[in-house]
Amino acid sequence: MKTCLIDVGGGLRGVYGAGVMDKCLDLGIVFDGVIGVSAGAANLTSYLSGQRGRSYRFYFTYSFRPDYMGLHNLIRKGSFFNLDYVYGQLPKSDGENPLDHAAMQAHPACCNFLLVAAEADTGKARYFTGDDLTFDNFEPLKASCAIPGISKPIEIDGVRYFDGALADPVPIRKAVELGYDKIVLILTRPIDKPRTADKDRMLAKMLRKAYPMAAHRLNLRAKRYNDSVDYARQLEQEGKVLILAPDDITGVDTTKRSKEALMRLYGKGFHDGGKITEFLK
Protein backbone atom coordinates (compact mmCIF):
# COMPACT_ATOMS: atom_id res chain seq x y z
CA MET A 1 0.00 0.00 0.00
CA LYS A 2 1.46 3.35 -1.09
CA THR A 3 0.43 6.35 1.00
CA CYS A 4 0.55 10.06 0.25
CA LEU A 5 0.03 13.29 2.19
CA ILE A 6 -1.15 16.40 0.32
CA ASP A 7 -1.22 19.91 1.82
CA VAL A 8 -2.84 22.55 -0.41
CA GLY A 9 -1.64 25.52 1.66
CA GLY A 10 -3.64 28.73 1.78
CA GLY A 11 -1.41 31.49 3.13
CA LEU A 12 -1.67 31.85 6.89
CA ARG A 13 -4.48 29.26 6.97
CA GLY A 14 -1.62 26.82 6.41
CA VAL A 15 -1.19 26.75 10.18
CA TYR A 16 -3.95 24.11 10.15
CA GLY A 17 -1.69 21.82 8.09
CA ALA A 18 1.19 22.54 10.45
CA GLY A 19 -0.97 21.18 13.27
CA VAL A 20 -1.81 18.04 11.30
CA MET A 21 1.86 17.34 10.62
CA ASP A 22 2.97 17.91 14.19
CA LYS A 23 0.39 15.29 15.17
CA CYS A 24 1.83 12.96 12.53
CA LEU A 25 5.28 13.43 14.04
CA ASP A 26 3.93 12.68 17.51
CA LEU A 27 2.26 9.50 16.25
CA GLY A 28 5.21 8.40 14.13
CA ILE A 29 3.19 8.42 10.91
CA VAL A 30 5.36 8.06 7.80
CA PHE A 31 4.04 8.50 4.26
CA ASP A 32 5.55 7.12 1.08
CA GLY A 33 5.15 10.43 -0.72
CA VAL A 34 4.11 14.02 -0.08
CA ILE A 35 2.80 16.83 -2.29
CA GLY A 36 2.64 20.47 -1.25
CA VAL A 37 1.22 23.64 -2.72
CA SER A 38 2.41 27.06 -1.52
CA ALA A 39 2.47 27.17 2.31
CA GLY A 40 1.65 23.45 2.26
CA ALA A 41 5.00 22.74 0.62
CA ALA A 42 6.74 24.75 3.34
CA ASN A 43 4.92 22.77 6.04
CA LEU A 44 6.11 19.55 4.49
CA THR A 45 9.78 20.48 4.73
CA SER A 46 9.46 20.64 8.54
CA TYR A 47 7.51 17.38 8.59
CA LEU A 48 10.14 15.59 6.52
CA SER A 49 12.97 16.98 8.66
CA GLY A 50 11.17 15.87 11.83
CA GLN A 51 11.32 19.36 13.33
CA ARG A 52 8.13 19.42 15.37
CA GLY A 53 6.79 22.94 15.97
CA ARG A 54 9.10 24.53 13.41
CA SER A 55 6.36 25.44 10.92
CA TYR A 56 4.15 26.77 13.70
CA ARG A 57 6.74 29.42 14.55
CA PHE A 58 6.55 30.81 11.02
CA TYR A 59 2.85 31.51 11.54
CA PHE A 60 2.71 32.35 15.23
CA THR A 61 5.93 34.33 15.64
CA TYR A 62 7.46 35.45 12.35
CA SER A 63 4.27 36.46 10.50
CA PHE A 64 3.85 39.36 12.93
CA ARG A 65 7.18 40.87 11.93
CA PRO A 66 7.28 43.70 9.36
CA ASP A 67 10.02 41.83 7.49
CA TYR A 68 7.65 38.90 6.94
CA MET A 69 4.61 40.58 5.41
CA GLY A 70 3.03 43.98 4.98
CA LEU A 71 2.28 46.85 2.61
CA HIS A 72 5.77 48.28 3.11
CA ASN A 73 7.19 45.10 1.54
CA LEU A 74 4.78 45.48 -1.38
CA ILE A 75 5.86 49.08 -1.92
CA ARG A 76 9.60 48.49 -1.46
CA LYS A 77 10.04 45.04 -3.00
CA GLY A 78 6.90 44.44 -5.03
CA SER A 79 5.71 41.57 -2.85
CA PHE A 80 3.39 41.64 0.18
CA PHE A 81 5.14 38.56 1.57
CA ASN A 82 8.91 39.03 1.71
CA LEU A 83 9.77 35.60 0.33
CA ASP A 84 13.49 36.29 0.55
CA TYR A 85 13.05 36.67 4.29
CA VAL A 86 10.51 33.88 4.82
CA TYR A 87 12.16 31.27 2.59
CA GLY A 88 15.66 32.68 2.46
CA GLN A 89 16.93 34.33 5.58
CA LEU A 90 14.95 32.43 8.25
CA PRO A 91 15.40 28.79 7.14
CA LYS A 92 19.03 28.86 6.02
CA SER A 93 21.65 26.97 7.99
CA ASP A 94 22.79 30.19 9.69
CA GLY A 95 19.26 31.58 10.00
CA GLU A 96 16.97 31.95 12.98
CA ASN A 97 14.96 28.80 12.22
CA PRO A 98 17.19 26.57 10.09
CA LEU A 99 15.82 23.58 8.25
CA ASP A 100 17.62 20.35 9.06
CA HIS A 101 18.37 19.64 5.42
CA ALA A 102 20.20 16.37 6.08
CA ALA A 103 17.27 15.00 8.08
CA MET A 104 14.80 16.06 5.37
CA GLN A 105 16.81 14.35 2.66
CA ALA A 106 17.11 11.21 4.81
CA HIS A 107 13.33 10.87 5.18
CA PRO A 108 12.06 8.05 2.95
CA ALA A 109 9.34 10.29 1.45
CA CYS A 110 11.74 13.05 0.39
CA CYS A 111 12.53 11.24 -2.86
CA ASN A 112 8.77 11.44 -3.57
CA PHE A 113 8.32 15.07 -2.49
CA LEU A 114 6.57 17.30 -5.05
CA LEU A 115 6.28 21.08 -4.73
CA VAL A 116 3.71 22.60 -7.10
CA ALA A 117 4.41 25.87 -8.89
CA ALA A 118 2.89 27.50 -11.98
CA GLU A 119 4.84 28.85 -14.94
CA ALA A 120 4.02 32.55 -15.14
CA ASP A 121 4.19 32.71 -18.95
CA THR A 122 2.24 29.53 -19.75
CA GLY A 123 0.15 28.89 -16.61
CA LYS A 124 1.25 25.24 -16.70
CA ALA A 125 2.10 23.28 -13.57
CA ARG A 126 5.71 22.59 -12.65
CA TYR A 127 6.29 19.89 -10.08
CA PHE A 128 9.60 20.56 -8.37
CA THR A 129 11.01 17.68 -6.35
CA GLY A 130 12.75 17.30 -3.02
CA ASP A 131 16.03 17.02 -4.93
CA ASP A 132 15.51 20.57 -6.19
CA LEU A 133 15.72 21.79 -2.58
CA THR A 134 19.48 21.65 -2.34
CA PHE A 135 21.34 22.84 0.76
CA ASP A 136 20.30 26.42 1.65
CA ASN A 137 18.42 26.73 -1.64
CA PHE A 138 14.71 27.41 -1.16
CA GLU A 139 13.89 28.88 -4.58
CA PRO A 140 11.28 26.18 -5.39
CA LEU A 141 9.49 27.06 -2.14
CA LYS A 142 9.49 30.74 -3.09
CA ALA A 143 8.11 29.82 -6.52
CA SER A 144 5.30 27.73 -5.04
CA CYS A 145 4.36 30.58 -2.66
CA ALA A 146 4.51 33.59 -5.02
CA ILE A 147 0.86 34.68 -4.88
CA PRO A 148 0.03 36.57 -8.10
CA GLY A 149 -1.01 40.16 -7.65
CA ILE A 150 0.74 40.54 -4.31
CA SER A 151 4.05 38.88 -5.19
CA LYS A 152 6.46 39.14 -8.06
CA PRO A 153 7.13 35.89 -9.93
CA ILE A 154 10.20 33.91 -8.89
CA GLU A 155 12.71 33.17 -11.64
CA ILE A 156 14.51 29.82 -11.68
CA ASP A 157 16.80 28.89 -14.58
CA GLY A 158 15.25 31.57 -16.76
CA VAL A 159 11.62 30.57 -16.09
CA ARG A 160 9.31 32.70 -13.95
CA TYR A 161 6.87 31.06 -11.55
CA PHE A 162 3.80 31.94 -9.53
CA ASP A 163 1.97 30.15 -6.72
CA GLY A 164 1.22 26.53 -7.55
CA ALA A 165 -2.48 27.02 -6.84
CA LEU A 166 -2.84 28.68 -10.27
CA ALA A 167 -2.04 25.42 -12.02
CA ASP A 168 -3.01 22.62 -9.62
CA PRO A 169 -4.72 23.95 -6.47
CA VAL A 170 -5.67 20.50 -5.13
CA PRO A 171 -3.26 17.95 -6.67
CA ILE A 172 -5.40 14.91 -5.90
CA ARG A 173 -5.38 13.71 -9.50
CA LYS A 174 -1.60 13.93 -9.54
CA ALA A 175 -1.46 11.65 -6.50
CA VAL A 176 -3.80 9.14 -8.15
CA GLU A 177 -1.75 9.30 -11.35
CA LEU A 178 1.36 8.44 -9.32
CA GLY A 179 -0.32 5.30 -8.01
CA TYR A 180 -0.97 6.12 -4.36
CA ASP A 181 -3.52 3.84 -2.74
CA LYS A 182 -4.30 5.87 0.39
CA ILE A 183 -4.21 9.67 0.29
CA VAL A 184 -4.59 12.12 3.15
CA LEU A 185 -5.69 15.49 1.78
CA ILE A 186 -5.31 18.61 3.93
CA LEU A 187 -7.60 21.49 2.99
CA THR A 188 -7.48 24.80 4.83
CA ARG A 189 -11.04 25.95 4.32
CA PRO A 190 -14.27 24.20 5.38
CA ILE A 191 -15.13 21.47 2.90
CA ASP A 192 -18.78 22.55 2.68
CA LYS A 193 -17.83 26.05 1.50
CA PRO A 194 -16.89 26.05 -2.20
CA ARG A 195 -14.22 28.46 -3.31
CA THR A 196 -15.54 31.60 -5.03
CA ALA A 197 -13.82 33.41 -7.89
CA ASP A 198 -14.35 37.04 -6.83
CA LYS A 199 -10.82 37.71 -5.52
CA ASP A 200 -9.28 35.68 -8.31
CA ARG A 201 -10.99 37.78 -10.98
CA MET A 202 -9.71 40.97 -9.39
CA LEU A 203 -6.13 39.65 -9.26
CA ALA A 204 -6.42 38.28 -12.81
CA LYS A 205 -7.18 41.77 -14.11
CA MET A 206 -3.92 42.96 -12.59
CA LEU A 207 -2.02 40.14 -14.32
CA ARG A 208 -3.73 40.12 -17.71
CA LYS A 209 -1.37 42.45 -19.55
CA ALA A 210 1.97 41.03 -18.37
CA TYR A 211 0.95 37.38 -17.87
CA PRO A 212 -2.21 36.60 -19.88
CA MET A 213 -1.97 32.81 -19.49
CA ALA A 214 -1.43 33.04 -15.75
CA ALA A 215 -4.43 35.39 -15.56
CA HIS A 216 -6.50 32.85 -17.48
CA ARG A 217 -5.51 30.10 -15.04
CA LEU A 218 -6.31 32.37 -12.13
CA ASN A 219 -9.82 32.91 -13.47
CA LEU A 220 -10.26 29.12 -13.53
CA ARG A 221 -8.76 28.44 -10.09
CA ALA A 222 -12.02 28.36 -8.14
CA LYS A 223 -13.60 25.90 -10.56
CA ARG A 224 -10.50 23.69 -10.60
CA TYR A 225 -10.36 23.76 -6.80
CA ASN A 226 -14.04 22.86 -6.40
CA ASP A 227 -13.91 20.14 -9.07
CA SER A 228 -10.84 18.58 -7.42
CA VAL A 229 -12.48 18.63 -3.99
CA ASP A 230 -15.58 16.96 -5.45
CA TYR A 231 -13.33 14.27 -6.96
CA ALA A 232 -11.59 13.79 -3.62
CA ARG A 233 -14.95 13.38 -1.91
CA GLN A 234 -15.84 10.63 -4.38
CA LEU A 235 -12.59 8.84 -3.57
CA GLU A 236 -13.27 9.34 0.13
CA GLN A 237 -16.50 7.38 -0.28
CA GLU A 238 -14.41 4.56 -1.73
CA GLY A 239 -12.06 4.59 1.26
CA LYS A 240 -9.10 5.82 -0.77
CA VAL A 241 -8.91 9.38 0.57
CA LEU A 242 -9.17 11.00 3.97
CA ILE A 243 -10.03 14.70 3.77
CA LEU A 244 -8.96 16.82 6.71
CA ALA A 245 -10.47 20.30 6.74
CA PRO A 246 -11.28 22.77 9.52
CA ASP A 247 -14.94 23.26 10.38
CA ASP A 248 -14.11 26.95 10.90
CA ILE A 249 -11.03 28.99 9.94
CA THR A 250 -11.34 30.96 13.24
CA GLY A 251 -10.83 34.32 11.52
CA VAL A 252 -7.55 33.40 9.80
CA ASP A 253 -7.24 34.07 6.07
CA THR A 254 -4.46 34.29 3.49
CA THR A 255 -3.04 37.52 4.96
CA LYS A 256 -5.26 37.97 8.04
CA ARG A 257 -4.32 36.66 11.48
CA SER A 258 -4.26 37.09 15.22
CA LYS A 259 -2.30 34.96 17.65
CA GLU A 260 -5.45 33.60 19.27
CA ALA A 261 -6.97 32.71 15.89
CA LEU A 262 -3.77 31.05 14.67
CA MET A 263 -3.50 29.00 17.85
CA ARG A 264 -7.09 27.78 17.53
CA LEU A 265 -6.69 26.83 13.87
CA TYR A 266 -3.42 25.02 14.63
CA GLY A 267 -5.25 23.16 17.42
CA LYS A 268 -7.95 22.06 15.02
CA GLY A 269 -5.30 20.63 12.70
CA PHE A 270 -3.50 18.89 15.56
CA HIS A 271 -6.77 17.32 16.70
CA ASP A 272 -7.84 16.24 13.20
CA GLY A 273 -4.45 14.68 12.54
CA GLY A 274 -5.40 11.98 15.02
CA LYS A 275 -7.80 10.54 12.41
CA ILE A 276 -4.97 9.48 10.14
CA THR A 277 -3.86 6.40 12.09
CA GLU A 278 -7.21 4.64 11.74
CA PHE A 279 -7.45 5.58 8.03
CA LEU A 280 -4.07 4.06 7.22
CA LYS A 281 -4.71 0.75 9.00
Structural notes for this entry:
The chain has helices spanning 15-27, 39-49, 54-60, 71-77, 83-89, 101-106, 139-145, 172-177, 198-207, 212-237, 259-272, 276-280, and strands at 3-7, 33-37, 113-119, 125-129, 154-156, 159-163, 182-186, 241-244. The protein is of the alpha/beta class and 281 residues long. Helix 1 packs across helix 11 (259-272), helix 5 packs antiparallel against helix 7 and helix 9 (198-207) runs antiparallel to helix 10 (212-237). The N and C termini lie close together (10 Å).
Observed structural traits:
281 residues, alpha/beta, 8-stranded mixed sheet, 12 helices, 8 strands, 42% helix, 14% strand, globular
Rounded mean pLDDT is 95
Strand content: 5-15%
Low-pLDDT segments, ≥5 res: none
Radius of gyration using CA atoms only: 17 Å
Helical/strand content category: alpha/beta
Number of strands: 8
- Coarse shape: globular
* Helix-strand topology string: EHEHHHHHEEHEEHEHHEHH
The description of the largest β-sheet is: 8 strands, mixed
H/I helix tally? 12
Helix fraction bin: 40-55%
Distance between the termini: 10 Å
Topology:
Elements: E1 3-7, H1 15-27, E2 33-37, H2 39-49, H3 54-60, H4 71-77, H5 83-89, H6 101-106, E3 113-119, E4 125-129, H7 139-145, E5 154-156, E6 159-163, H8 172-177, E7 182-186, H9 198-207, H10 212-237, E8 241-244, H11 259-272, H12 276-280
Parallel strand pairs: 1-2, 1-7, 2-3, 7-8
Antiparallel strand pairs: 3-4, 3-6, 5-6
